[in-house]
Write a structure and sequence with these properties.
PaaI family thioesterase; about 120 residues; single chain; Thioestr_dom; alpha+beta; 6-stranded antiparallel beta sheet; Thiol Ester Dehydrase, Chain A
């Protein structure tokens, strides 16, 4: 799916695992994705989480559905990650229904430091 969506492909997100139970996406944090202080920008973290959860939602689409879209998303920023850090987003389902799925995405550094947590609702299309 990542090749079908231009924005995450442009950012360089790399899908490491994708199934109905878990999605893992990685990227090395580039300086242009950071704030003035050289740490991950909140908008970048939200884009990474949204993409990761959407991949999960695609994995659980019911028969006959063609796509999914984010209808709600909430992100808590927990810690800072410096430019050059390997970022790992891991999405797991909270709910899988006929019309929606809800995903929690944790973004951590490769050292295991928690950076953000996002909960999003994806609608079946």
């Amino acid at each position: 799916m990542s090749s079908l969506v231009p924005f995450p492909a442009y950012l360089g997100f790399e899908v490491k695992r994708s199934d109905r139970d878990c999605v893992v996406v990685e990227i090395v944090l580039r300086p242009e994705y950071c704030t003035m202080g050289g740490t991950a920008h909140g908008g970048f973290l939200m884009a990474l989480a949204d993409f990761t959860g959407a991949i999960g939602a695609m994995e659980v689409l019911p028969e006959g559905a063609t796509s999914t879209t984010t209808v709600e998303s909430k992100t808590n920023m927990i810690g800072a990650a410096p430019a050059g850090a390997l970022m790992r987003a891991t999405a797991t389902p909270l709910h899988i229904g006929r019309r929606t799925s809800v995903w929690t995405t944790r973004i951590e550094t490769d050292a295991g430091k928690l950076i953000s947590v996002t909960t999003q609702t994806q609608m079946v299309i």
